Amino acid sequence: MLALADLSASIATPSTVVVEGVVAAMQAHTPGGPAPLATAMSAATTLAQSAIAGQPDASTIVLVIGDGPASACNESNGQAIEAIGDTTQVGAPTHVVLVGGTPDVDDLYEAMAQAGGTRLLDYRGDENDVDEALAEVETAATPCRYLVDPPAPGVDAWTEVVLSFSGVPVDLPLQRVADRSACDEQPGFFVDDPAAPTSLELCPQPCGQIGFGRDFASVVIRSACP
Fold it and tell me: CB burial class (10 A; 0-12, 13-18, 19+) of residue 68?
């Protein structure tokens, strides 16, 4: 994560830091001054290329959190959008979180998210919930991780799921396993919290079978019938 202050930038966290570490790093910085979005995204492209080359099997993403337009170094909003497109082209989608600003930045941040291959996360009015936004980004950025509805109290739901793909008349039933380490014995799926699951993640084998969902118009996960 890059921390921008006036016209300088520094690495606030290494690429291996999880959501909690990013939140802590953000709390240690006070944003201010102009926003060199295009310059920052150019640097992010270089960092993303290096990360992808070093860890080709990992999921590399870029995160932009902002509240205003490109306003430094004689940059334009169009240059910022183009720079985000360049980052996406090297294989690192850009997730965009809007935490403030006036309505005139709506179209800009929507276009930034679109260029990044993602959807805009609008957290205006909820600046203190950036950790929630980061958790949402983490879920979206993890291949084959899906948000699920929490079960009713006392109901042990999400023990079995069925994957359906639009345009493919075949369902894929999967059984829940304890955690990622159990995927070798029974390729299925695991949940973040067995007592109160909010997301599930497919084991590597079924995840590879669906190609991360990119080869289909949509992937539907539903709880299997009892």
Answer: middle
Segment (H or E) for 93: none
Tens digit of pLDDT for each residue in 77-126? 888 889 888 888 888 888 888 887 777 788 889 999 899 888 888 887 76
Q: pTM of the predicted model, to two decimals?
A: 0.59
How many CA within 13 A on the CB side of residue 93? 16
- From residue 82, alpha-carbon distances to 23, 58, 78, 92, 114 in Å are 28, 25, 6, 14, 11
Amino acid at 137: V
Surface-to-core class of residue 30, CB atoms within 10 Å of its CB (0-12 exposed, 13-18 middle, 19+ buried)? exposed
Task: In whole angstroms, give the CA distance from residue 145 to residue 224.
Answer: 18
